[in-house]
## 1
Amino acid sequence: MQIHWIKIKKIVDETPDIKTYFLEIPEGYSWEEGAHLHLALEGFNVGEKPNKSLVRHMSISTLPNENAIGITTRIRQQCSEFKAILRNLQVGDQVAIFKTHSNVPLRRENKNIYLLSSGVGLATFRPIVLKYFEQPENVPQIHSLNIDSSKNYLFTNIFKTNHDKNFTAHFVDNREEYYDRIKKLSTDKNGLYYVVGSDDFLKQNIQVLLEEGIKPEQIMLDKPPRRLPDFLPIELSN
């Protein structure tokens, strides 16, 4: 396993409690849309065993042509040790990255794509949408639906309806409207449904989609294959 120690180039406050950390790109390092990595803080690999409390699985919210690895995360006042340390890091400080992989690349199957997310989960979808804008081939249209009760919606410069690009974006702040919209979207029985959020959020979305007749193979989760049976019917999740 290769570990890259890299510096923070820039920190942006996206909302009162969400930050994006822009990191250096190591030489020869690349990734595809929908990718995630393991982000580790100094001291995580000191001693006989790694300190897992200093490591987190994070989505990459940028594309390589943006010349930085973007990590967008929510940091509340009451937070974990990892988030507390991260909050105090400054430009020039070092972090480590390793194990980069994408479970949710943009599927180009001439099917409409629906991006369903909660809060900062939208960070996973940002590079997917940008990639679609750059190369829309074999993707008829994309619809994004995000729920965030704080109403501090993310990336509104990108996630806004653009009819010329066949892209539609909706933000809602309550579950009733959110699930009503999912039911309307799921009238497309051939679409591909990407879901990002907490495990409970995934399970609730999957339940609604399955009840509406969407098949498990049409549902994309940011989970490794070994975890899919925890969320989707086992006999159909291969």
## 2
Amino acid sequence: MRRGLIAALAALMLAQPAMAQHGDEGDIAYRRGLAYKSSGDGALAAHWLGVAASRGMPEAMFMLATMLLEGDGVARDEAKARTWLEAAAELDYPEAWQQLGMMEPDPQRAAQYMRRAAHALTHRSEAKR
């Protein structure tokens, strides 16, 4: 639970500049999801994060996946979580690559995911300069 909360807060802090590229509807849905999550209403948070995720927001995809992995406001569903993580990873979202690496039983493949996470994070930090 604590790991998920830390990941969600980190995603929130890093998501602000990226939100504009997903349009107003995605941005509004994402912010609603965050508000419901912080107020403790996981079901509504998952709904709105799902709306934002379906509009291509990797931040929302990652948070929704985290909720699905932990059963936070939704039924625990590792397969659905993996689907959202893979979608976010395809958009080069570092946290998604990292989570996929942590879930991967094959050490070589896990290491590959972690390298991709590091690479994506490097590009994110370079873009902020």
